[in-house]
Design brief:
Blueprint: E1 6-11, H1 16-28, E2 32-38, E3 58-62, H2 68-78, E4 82-85, H3 92-97, H4 99-121, E5 122-124, E6 127-128, E7 136-142, H5 166-185, E8 189-194, E9 196-198, H6 207-216, E10 221-224, E11 230-235, H7 236-249, E12 255-258, E13 263-265, H8 266-280, E14 293-296, H9 311-317, H10 325-339
Parallel strand pairs: 1-2, 1-4, 2-3, 4-7, 7-8, 8-12, 9-11, 10-14
Antiparallel strand pairs: 5-6, 11-13
Helix pairs in contact: 1-7, 2-4, 4-5, 6-8, 8-10
Length: about 350
């Protein structure tokens, strides 16, 4: 006999952040069942969820969130009391080559989800159905919607939007659609905007897995420009904990920024990983992996610096990043060395 009494839909749960979030959430909240809705694009991998696939409180449904008919049927059948929406096209380089799919998935897909939830949860604008009085839609977004920073300053929840890539523009659009469902229809929504995530299960195309992959293959490690672009790095499990808090305790209609307060430039990242590999997996030649670092032509429209002010989440909801970059990157390298052994 299972003891859960709440069903939520998690979209994109086979991706990097979702597949770290789901095991954490299931373990922490035995009252919930999770239905993982994922299209399984190249970025989704069910092997990321092997530890929960036999859990009676976990189900997987392969579904494109742009398929409105199937989505509505799923909502009517499962009657979820919450949505945590990770599903998105997220690789900036891919958005430069093929922007259309980013606009479709990130904007129209988010709209389809919102409207499916609205249709189930509400009789009309600002009229919630009694059994869904506490139903909530949490939308996971990015700090890239704010554009780029100079050498100083931080993004806060009140920073004006200024997206610079098709990816960030599509995420900004999705944020606005979520906002509109709160102000026009009275839906209970919360948005989180996070800084760069890293950790286990990240797709090989992203910066840190690329550094590791190229290093271990003794191939040139490509770094854009001069390696001076700065990001605020957030360990993925810290992000999962922030989302959990915002979902359960956040104020309806509000946005919460989640950042690690760990600003590092790409040169620091690649040198740090090389140093860890030199220690944990020395090259047969005993030369440093740093010799493989290769600077390549910069990405078009490459934002110089992102950094998040997470004060609101920290003071209002009591969140705090538990990992700094140095502890988190060690855990991350250990995971990949074991996984790729």
């Amino acid at each position: 006999m299972t003891n859960f009494n709440k069903t939520i839909i998690v979209t994109g749960g086979a991706g990097f952040i979702g597949s770290n979030f789901i095991p954490y959430f299931l373990q922490k909240h035995p009252e919930y069942k999770i239905i993982n809705v994922d299209k399984l694009t190249y970025a989704g991998n069910l092997l990321n969820l092997k530890e929960v696939e036999a859990n009676p409180r976990y189900d997987f449904v392969q579904l494109d969130i742009c398929n409105r008919t199937s989505l509505y049927e799923l909502f009517q059948k499962e009657k979820p009391v919450g949505v945590i929406h990770f599903a998105a096209e997220s690789h900036v380089d891919n958005s430069i080559k093929n922007p259309e799919i980013f606009l479709e998935t990130n904007i129209l897909g988010t709209f389809s989800l919102l409207h499916a939830a609205y249709t189930l949860w509400m009789d009309s604008p600002f009229q919630k159905r009694q059994e869904f009085a506490s139903a909530r839609f949490l939308h996971v977004s990015t700090d890239e919607v704010y554009g780029t920073l100079g050498e100083t300053g931080l993004f806060s929840e009140t920073t004006p939007y200024a997206p610079n890539s098709p990816y960030s523009a599509s995420k900004a659009g999705s944020d606005f659609v979520v906002r509109s469902y709160h102000h026009t229809y009275g839906m209970d929504v919360v948005t989180t905007n996070c800084s760069n995530n890293y950790g286990p299960k990240q797709h090989k195309e992203k910066l840190i897995p690329t550094i590791l992959r190229k290093s271990l293959a003794s191939e040139p490690i490509p770094i854009y420009g001069q390696g001076t672009n700065v990001r605020d790095w957030l360990y993925v499990l810290d992000h999962a904990k922030g989302i959990d808090l915002a979902f359960h305790k956040g104020k309806s209609g509000e946005t919460y920024n989640i950042g690690g307060r760990n600003e590092r430039n790409n040169n620091y990242i690649v040198h740090k990983i090389c140093e860890i590999l030199d220690q944990k997996r020395p090259r047969p030649s005993n030369k440093s992996y740093k010799e493989l670092i290769t600077y390549v032509a910069d990405r078009p429209g490459h934002d110089l610096r992102y950094a998040i002010d997470a004060t609101k989440l920290e003071t209002e909801l009591g969140w705090k990043a538990e990992e700094n970059f140095e502890t988190g990157i060690e855990k991350t390298v250990d995971w990949y060395l074991k996984e790729w052994n």
